[in-house]
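In the current project phase, the collection of sequences with tokenised folds has grown. A representative record is quoted in full directly below:
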Amino acid sequence: MIKKEILADGEQKSGGLVDEIAELKEILREVSKKLTRIEAQVKRGGLSAGSKTSELQAVAVADVEKPANLSTDNVLEVYEELRLQAKKGHELEVRQKLAAMSATDLNLMCCELGMPPSSKNPSRKKMFELIIGRIKQSLMLSRHIDRQTL
């Protein structure tokens, strides 16, 4: 009987230890999940802030001679002027005005028109084509609509 009691006590202790180990493993899993989530948030926050600063620096280096002429307030006004010129059939003038704009202005116009660039440092040509495409799209969609009545 003494051997049975000793074995029973050993099994109870080992069973208790197994339960404690299972609890500790569960706690470690939760901590690991929280750490992974926090790391992901930090990476997302760090990458977006880092990419914006590097993008702005790259654009600034490319446009040292051409300062930004447009503000966020008058970007849509300039776009509307370009659209109206294209509507009148002066597409060459529209292309010339866009070509004369700085890359910063083109990038700002793309962003304001809801066309975020597909890469960190989009080329002038890519932004130019995005804006021309948006102007053509607007003309095709508004061919039978009078914008003043809206």
Remarks:
- Helices lie at 2-62, 75-87, 91-100, 103-112, 124-141.
